Structures are given as structure tokens and as C-alpha cells.
Sequence to fold (268 residues):
Amino acid sequence: MTTLKAKDDEITSAIKHHWDRRAATFDDESCHGLHSAAQREAWLEVLGRLAGASPLSVLDVGCGTGFLALLLAELGHSVTGIDLAPQMLNVAREKAEQLHLSVRLRLENGASVQDCDGSYDLVMARHVIWVLPDPARGVREWLRVLRPGGHLALIEGKWGSDEIKTTYMDSIKNALAAVLSAASKVIRYSVGKTKLWAFLVGKLNNWRYHHIQAQLPFSGGPSAEQLLAFLETQGLRDLTVEPLMSPVLWGDGSQYPRYLVVGRRERD
Fold:
């Protein structure tokens, strides 16, 4: 199991807070939840082709509210979902109970997986690699728990710029962060955990998340070409890319590139 670096712990904390805050309404967005029978069937078709008919042991990294995990369980696979946001996992558990599906769900950082080497036939992640402070470390962990010859499948997209706009804007953000941090300490000392304190802390945490997001290696999502090149450096073989551009899959009209990358872990 990989030991997390101290610097990454702070980044992980901000990311965890952000997704915890969004958990209650996350599935309301058409590209996050399932909003029609046609959308559900379209995803079952994609996952059915990917995983095949024989039951597999599957790890869903950054499972969130259980989108992939529940569909894969419905297809008959043995699924474990991990996520670092407890509120996301709570929603996933409620959905699993409502659907009478058996899915193992664990509070866990996707860059430090608890499972033994070679535990899974298939490791999947949907819109996760872009939010990792160290994508290489994350992929190494996913390959570690993947059996030799097993497959890693990543559903990703490219929706924004991966560069911080200008040094000037960055300096303003750093200054603002320092001011807000100092102000929050004063308010905490003066009035304790009041509604005002909670509001300011929430605003500060939200800003911290977006500031961190802008500096992540795959901020804005990797292009298919960028992700392919990266995964090749991590030792994946037989890499393929499948565009996922059908509006039925996402339930929206957005046309930014979305795709599925699949690669095989080499046999020892």
C-alpha cells in the first residue's frame, strides 16, 4: 500500500471536502446520474461489452454515488467501490439498498488501495484521474491490485484548459487565500463556530479546491492522446480508445470529447 505524501494530504482534504459538499445533489446533473431508461441501457451496453459475460472481480476507484459500481453489479460482477468522500458513499449505499444490489463500499483514497496485489480482474475509474495530485502513483496502485493480464479501464473527457491563466492571476489568488485564511482564524477566535464562521470556511474551502484543481497535472481532463501516452509510460499494453460521444450516454448536449481508454497489465 502506497504511503501518502504529507503535501498530498492537504490537497486530498480539500478535494474530499468539495465532493462531500456536492454529494446530496450530485446525481441531479444529467451527466452524473441516470435520468432515463435509454441512458441506463446505453451504459449497460458499454459496460457489458467491456466486462463481458463471465463474472469478474471489479474495483471501481472514486466510485462516488455508485454510478459504475451499481451498473456492473447489475450485470452480475463482484464489485468493490472506494471513494474518499463519505457523503458520496452514503448516497451509493442508499442506492444499492433500494436496488437490492450487493456492492462492497469502502472509505478509501484511490491512490492508496488496501487490497492485496492482484486482487481484481478489472479496475475502473470514471472522471477520477484528472483529480489526482500524482496520477502516476494512482495508476501504479491500480495496476498493483490488478491481476497480471487484467484490464484497467478509464472513462474520461477533456472539458477545459489545464493551464493556470497567468502568473498575475495566480499571485492574486495566493494573496486572497492568505487574507481569507487570516480572517477565518480571527473570526474563529472571536465568535467560535457560528453560521458566519461556517459560511466563510465554506467559501475558503471552495476557493482552495478550485485553486488546487487548476494546478493538477490533468486539470480540465486529459485528452485521449495525452492519456494514452501517459498510460504507455506506466507499462499498460494493448491500449484502445473508444469515443463515448452519444448524447444518450450523458443526457446533455455537451460536445467536449469523452472517451473510454482500456489497457492490459502485462503478465509477470
Residues 167-214 form one domain. DSSP finds nine helices and seven strands in the chain. Residues 162-169 have pLDDT under 50 and may be disordered. Residues 21 and 87 are 8 Å apart (CA to CA).
